[in-house]
Amino acid sequence: MAKQVEPIKNKVQEVFSKNAEKYVTSSTHAKGSDLSLLPSWLDLPTNSIVLDIATGGGHVVKALAPHASQVFATDLTYQMLEAAKRHLDQTESNISYVIADAESLPFLENTFDAVTCRIAPHHFPHPDIFVKEVARVLKHGGKFLLIDNIAPEEKELDEFVNHLEKLRDESHNRSYSINEWKTWFEQADLTLLKAEARKKTFDYPDWVRRTTTSEEQVKKVDSHLLLANDSISNYFSIQTSNDSIQSITIDEWMALAVKK
């Protein structure tokens, strides 16, 4: 009997299958400053086997393939994986493509020297299970590099940004806090080695239309931002011109952990 896919995962497949090429070309995903940091943070031996979870447009895989022996690019959505393959096949030959659920990885224990996951876990309904799966497939001494949007610790800011993301993207589940991630790392026997919190600014017109499907939906996102109080508006640096939103800034966390 086929395993039933959770509704949020069905929504992820629906949204990303329709917008696969947008995520390949998205400046946020393709040109983030964090991509150039990946090789130095992981410091991979040349014989390393690497797993990239929820690869999206394949940008992490592209950054790491020259530094590893073999890289597995995985994604829940077939069309997304297909788009990544078109993006990467002309430049890299050591990449394998596997359809995989981040919370139920189709790999044996102690398989990978490193696991990466970038700008994706906010779509995952069970991040604690995801982290345990990462730890399971990592070799002892293997490294896990996580990059994702995060929620501030303050409840008002957390609720605001998560509602914003859900209005814009129905496949969004939740942006989690740094303290939540640290707890899940500890539960999976992953030791945090280094981390960096930073601000990430989006060109709003491009960002809001990447996943919205109608002008009505765009207006709902606009309204949520324009009605923000001063404290929220200042925190997320909501920049407007003639009542038109130009840019917003959200929190991102880059963290490197090792399996004990």
Written description of the protein model:
It holds the Pfam family Methyltransf_11. Residues 51-145 form the Methyltransferase type domain. One of its GO terms (molecular function) is methyltransferase activity. Belongs to the methyltransferase superfamily. This is Methyltransferase domain-containing protein. The chain has 260 residues and is α/β, with parallel strands linked by helices. The protein has a single domain (7-152, 171-201, 250-259), classed as Vaccinia Virus protein VP39 (Rossmann fold, 3-Layer(aba) Sandwich), CATH 3.40.50. 39% of the residues lie in helices and 27% in strands. The protein contains 12 helices and 8 strands. It has helices spanning 7-18, 20-25, 27-30, 38-42, 59-64, 78-88, 127-137, 155-168, 178-187, 204-208, 215-226, 230-235; strands at residues 49-53, 70-75, 95-99, 112-118, 138-150, 190-203, 239-241, 244-259. Strands 1, 2, 3, 4, 5, 6, 7 and 8 form an 8-stranded mixed sheet that branches. β1 (49-53), α5 and β2 (70-75) form a beta-alpha-beta unit. α7 packs across α9. It is globular, with a radius of gyration of 18 Å. It starts with 6 loop residues before the first helix and ends with a strand. The relative contact order is 0.14.
**Largest sheet, described in full?**
8 strands, mixed
Number of domains: 1
Coarse structural class:
alpha/beta
Q: β content, as a range?
A: 25-35%
Could you spell the SSE succession in H and E letters?
HHHHEHEHEEHEHHEHHHEE
CATH architecture: 3-Layer(aba) Sandwich
State the share of residues found in helices, binned by percent.
Answer: 25-40%
The CATH class name reads Alpha Beta
Radius of gyration: 18 Å
Low-confidence stretches: none
Number of helices: 12
For the secondary structure, the number of strands is 8
Kindly identify the CATH topology: Rossmann fold
- Name the average pLDDT: 91
| First-residue to last-residue Cα separation | 37 Å
Gross morphology is globular
